[in-house]
Write a structure and sequence with these properties.
Strand order of the largest sheet: 1-2
Shape: globular
Order of helices and strands: HHHEEH
CATH architecture: Orthogonal Bundle
Structural class: mainly alpha
Mean pLDDT: 81
Number of domains: 1
CATH topology: Arc Repressor Mutant, subunit A
Radius of gyration: 14 Å
Low-confidence stretches: none
């Protein structure tokens, strides 16, 4: 399931780090690391941070494009 499909099914506009970690099948710490590195866009609401499903979908597309590039390089060798 892509983040876009998930966003269509769930009525909330913003996701918590715990929800993002569950979707990405990673730890919450990894989500916070991506935030610190500037790879995930977020909004800060007081002490909490929230993510839009669209931004997660964009992150997934960038990651997929990078992986495709690597596989093309490997085929050349």
């Amino acid at each position: 399931m892509t983040f876009k499909e998930f966003a269509a099914k769930i009525p909330c506009l913003w996701l918590s780090p715990k929800q993002v970690a569950r979707l990405m099948q990673c730890s919450i710490e990894h989500v916070y690391d991506l935030v610190k590195l500037g790879r995930l866009c977020y909004i800060k609401d007081g002490r909490n941070i929230r993510f839009r499903p669209k931004d997660l979908n964009d992150y997934e597309k960038r990651l997929f494009a990078r992986r495709q590039h690597v596989t093309l390089q490997e085929k050349r060798l």
